[in-house]
Amino acid sequence: MVDVPLASGHTRGMALDLSLVGKESSPATFTYAWQDVVRYALGIGAKRDELDYLYEGRGPKVFPSFAVVPMFNPMFELVAKTGGDLTKVVHGGQRVRLCAALKPEGILLTRAKITGIYDLRRLAVVLVNTETKDASGTVLFDATSQIIFRGEGGWGGEPPPKEPKVAEIPKGEPADFRIEETTSREQALLYRLSGDENPLHADPEFAAKVGFAQGPILHGLCSYGFMVRHVAKGAADGDAMRVTGFACKFTKPVWPGDTLVTEGWKVAPGKVALQVSVKERDEVVIGSAWATITEFS
Fold first, then answer.
1. Is residue 85 part of a domain?
2. Going by C-beta distance under 8 Å and a sequence separation of 6 or more, which residues neighbour residue 266?
3. Higher pLDDT, 209 or 133
4. Residues 294, 286: Cα–Cα separation, whole Å
5. Is 52 a catalytic residue?
6. Rounded to whole angstroms, how far apart are CA atoms 146 and 90?
7. Which domain, by its residues, includes 257?
8. Has residue 168 been placed in a domain?
9. Residue 4 belongs to a domain
10. Which of 169, 213, 251, 297 is spaced 20 to 30 Å from 204 by Cα?
11. In this structure, are residues 90 and 198 in contact, taking their beta carbons and an 8 Å threshold?
12. 1 within a domain of the structure (yes/no)
């Protein structure tokens, strides 16, 4: 998990509110246009050779990881209600499953629900499920966010359930593809325009105050988007619309300017095991990752 706070506010000395488990939020409305889709694509590193995702004259197509944008605020609003110290929150993992290709504009409705608050001694794990529908009521995608509170465990609760392994890296086997891409030093400043405005990703003084003297870090969900782009190139002939599911655990922070290296193993038809590393430090920053490649009818 990445040792990264998600927000600057906090409430000290309060146990997590376990009564929130099973509670569902009211539907949150998210209205977007093609400019939002393109802004997101640029935020996750899309280049001129990916013009289908950057130019309205070609749609634009929508990267499937854009799903994390409408679900983020409803998810985080529930996390904030738990009463935990938000300066000690880390984004532990993220899963998205698409039911249909995303359109370049529309109105979406998202409901969020805390499905469990679990005890890992010094840590507490909050699982938040979200489901997003279009204006007609059709489910477009669902997601699960694993949010971790440092220092909030130890009340004697149950540990989190083990997640099913969709695809695992085969031991000793070389990757079927390897894609290397350097993020820009402004990457986090660009990505935050898609909704996650945490000062940790922009303000050097704030970053130093919460333990990152090297400066603002890149959003985990930005690295997540890079991973999905790379999967599309390495396993779906460049067509991100065929990437219909993806999940990971965030293991280490990434700084703007780092070089991300995505490796993929095609372990079964339509299933890819993944790992993302930072080249400069030779360390894994995204692990336990996978993607599914299918076609929408």
1. yes
2. 176, 235, 272
3. 133
4. 23
5. no
6. 9
7. 18-293
8. yes
9. no
10. 251
11. no
12. no
pTM for this entry = 0.92
How far are the Cα atoms of 17, 79, 129, 136, 143 from residue 276, in angstroms, in the given order?
Answer: 34, 27, 24, 37, 20
Instruction: Tell the burial category of 165 from Cβ atoms under 10 Å away from its Cβ (0-12, 13-18, 19+).
Output: exposed
Gap between the Cα atoms of 48 and 46, Å rounded: 7
Count structural domains, the chain: 1
201 is catalytic: yes
Q: What is the CATH number of the domain that holds 238?
A: 3.10.129.10
250, 290 in Cβ contact below 8 A?
no
Q: Using one digit for the tens of pLDDT, what is the confidence trace for 22-45?
A: 989 999 999 999 999 999 999 999
> What is the layout of strands, in order, in the sheet containing 123-134?
28-32, 106-120, 123-134, 139-150, 89-98, 243-250, 283-293, 271-278, 259-268, 177-182
Cβ neighbors of 13 (< 8 A, separation 6 or more) are: none
Q: Quick one: tokens of 228?
A: 């999905």
Question: Is residue 3 predicted with pLDDT exceeding 60?
Answer: no
Q: Catalytic: which of 119, 142, 196, 258?
A: 196
Whether residue 60 has a cis bond before it, omega within 30° of 0 = yes
User: 């299933």: which residue's tokens?
Assistant: 271
246 with 65: CB under 8 angstroms?
yes
What are the pLDDT digits (tens) for 68-84? 999 999 999 999 999 98
Neighbours of 82 (CB within 10 A): 26
Among 182, 166, 200, which residue's Cα sits nearest to residue 95?
166
* Distance from the first to the final alpha carbon of the chain: 36
